[in-house]
Design a protein that fits this description.
alpha+beta; 5-stranded antiparallel sheet; 2 domains
Length: 210
Amino acid sequence: MTEYYLPTGYGTAEHVEKKSRFIGQVWPVRTEAEAREKIEAVKKQHHDARHNCWCYALRDGTLRYSDDGEPQGTAGQPMLEVLRGQGVTDAVIVVTRYFGGILLGTGGLARAYTKGARDALSAAGISVERLWDRLLVACSYSLYDRIRQETERCGGVIEDTEYGADVTLTVLTPETETDNYVNQLTELSAGTVQGEKLDQVFRGVPVKSE
């Protein structure tokens, strides 16, 4: 099954290391042109900063980074490793540094840029983009918590909930888990709950954060 992890949306975070201010920003992108556009926008926004270091990773395997004047290997590559460590693609990160007058050393710089990238990605959140089965699941209120737990256990997501005489859930499940999920619903409800498959969708759903 093909799946991709990507930022849920825009995220930003700031921190200070020995008087240097680091501003991390992350966006989901689909192309190099879009990534470069974000980078150039940050450079204009923070034109007075000492450094605007960046990296991006695309699902086609494209990987790019820049230390933007920092010592080689202390900024862009550590930031890129944040994406690779999380398995995230289709993402661009820019970490801006306003120099505070105190040198951090190569190790300190790498840690600071890693933190800037990691915190921004955490703020953005991470989604998984894959093929999902969409199912309609109706259950009694007494079974709702167990159904919700089973949905989470199989990697599914509750897309919508309607409260009436019963609880009606619209559930997204990974296509490879649907049969097992439906069987588990039947078992835990003694046959009173079944999943009705509506359709399939390929989309990103927030399921994971750092």
